[in-house]
Design goal:
Elements lengths: L3 H12 L4 H5 L2 H22 L3 E3 H18 L11 H15 L5 H24 L13 H11 L10 H31 L2 H11 L23 H5 L2 H13 L6 E5 L5 E3 L2 E3 L4 E5 H4 L21 H9 L14 H4 L18 H13 E7 L19 E6 L2
Antiparallel strand pairs: 1-7, 2-5, 3-4, 6-7
Length: 398
């Protein structure tokens, strides 16, 4: 949408359920996190034993399962972590669709049918929600919010048009799985290269109460207690490794396109004609040597410096853009206390899903690299590894 008002009106329909305040108190988010982590992910990694795991594939499955669970409810979502056949089929179709490969139309149709089916399942869940009250399940948070707001809206995004609703939900699904997949992969790669850093991170994670131990999987989802998001956010090394991964390996390092208004604009003293496409690249911003010395090197310790230096870095920290057009899911992806830097509130976050997943993995396992050939980022909008893989070995820790 080029127009600001239509964009703002539609974004407001779902922005509430992506806000920090909503997420920090969401029982649905805690329930779905518990199920995905301790009923799916930890058992899957433990069952792998000494087998090698392609984390680029598994990370996409994690992102898809978390994203669709929050959109449609855990009982209506994908389960690509455990269902390897469904994972391979979904990922093949997504790759074909996103890369404009042969048979793209067929792949797109299958992906769209899946999204529509999850919408229909969520709608059925809402009609019979009382039947699910005794189960360890979660509500279709985003779908419920969007469908209820559309019913009261004069928006041309017609509430009776189920295809339009499914299209919006599919956008959220793809965005959540791809960005999470990329940052997970590079963070795990960096940690796997640094056993000492892994050890220090695990020591910090074990201070959580309760710790994210695999033994929690023995409890029913209704009786598990996860550490609070605030407790996760208070861990300085966890925060630092995530910030540094997002800085160097921004999921969308390419310029984010914007268009100047018809009358033109003045940007940093330069007169830009109207309707000119402009953009800012997070890749370039994050490699400002004056702000990030030795900018191309993974150095989590740079985020553990004094507050003045960190505030200056946060002014240049831009993994998901900023302003009205920033990623709507940044708070689900990114959660933190507000920054003390004036005007930086929308950028001062750390990763909710990423923090809880990385914390669970590195509380229970050590990782080492088996195959990282082609790990360098592609020069594309969603920039994963050129080799489209990262093979790790998982070693359980007591």
């Amino acid at each position: 949408m080029v127009g600001n008002k239509p964009h703002t009106d539609q974004k407001r329909m779902v922005s509430h359920v992506y806000s920090n305040s909503y997420l920090s108190s969401s029982t649905d988010l805690r329930t779905l996190s518990s199920v995905i982590l301790f009923d799916r992910l930890v058992p899957a990694l433990k069952s792998a034993g000494d087998m090698n795991v392609d984390m680029y594939s598994l990370n996409q499955a994690i992102g898809t399962d978390f994203g669709t669970a929050y959109l449609f409810g855990i009982s209506n979502s994908t389960n690509l972590i455990q269902d390897l056949v469904a994972r391979e089929h979904w990922q093949k179709n997504i790759r074909t669709k996103m890369r404009f490969l042969p048979e793209r139309d067929k792949a797109s149709e299958e992906v769209e049918r899946t999204a529509l089916a999850m919408c229909e399942a969520a709608e059925e869940f809402l009609r019979n929600e009382k039947q699910h009250s005794v189960l360890p399940t979660s509500s279709p948070v985003v779908y419920s919010q969007l469908s209820s707001r559309l019913a009261d809206s004069p928006s041309p995004f017609n509430p009776s048009n189920r295809i339009a609703t499914a299209s919006e939900m599919l956008d959220h699904t793809i965005a959540s799985q791809e960005t999470t997949r990329i940052v997970f992969t590079y963070l795990q790669w960096e940690l796997s290269r640094r056993p000492t850093l892994q050890h220090s991170l695990r020591a910090e994670l074990l201070t959580l109460s309760p710790p994210l131990r695999g033994s929690m999987s023995q409890l029913s989802a209704a009786h598990r207690t996860l550490p609070s998001l605030q407790a996760l956010d208070a861990l300085p090394l966890l925060d630092a490794v995530l910030k540094e991964a997002l800085r160097i390996y921004t999921p969308s390092p390419a310029p984010l396109p914007r268009i100047t208004p018809p009358e033109g604009a003045i940007i940093d003293g330069y007169t830009i004609p109207g309707r000119t496409i402009v953009g800012t690249s997070a890749y370039c911003v994050h490699r400002n040597e004056d702000v990030f010395p030795d900018a191309a090197t993974f150095k989590p310790e740079r985020w553990l410096k004094d507050a003045k230096e960190v505030r200056e870095m946060m002014r240049w920290y831009w993994p998901f853009a900023s302003g009205p057009r920033m990623c709507i899911g940044n708070h689900l992806a990114l959660y933190s206390k507000l920054s003390s830097v004036e005007g930086m509130e929308s950028r001062a976050h750390t990763h909710i899903v990423m923090k809880i997943v990385i914390s669970t993995i590195y509380t229970n396992f050590e990782t080492s690299i088996i195959d990282d050939q082609g790990i360098e980022q592609e020069d594309v909008f969603l920039a994963g590894p050129v080799g489209e893989k990262l093979v790790l070995r998982f070693h359980p820790v007591s």
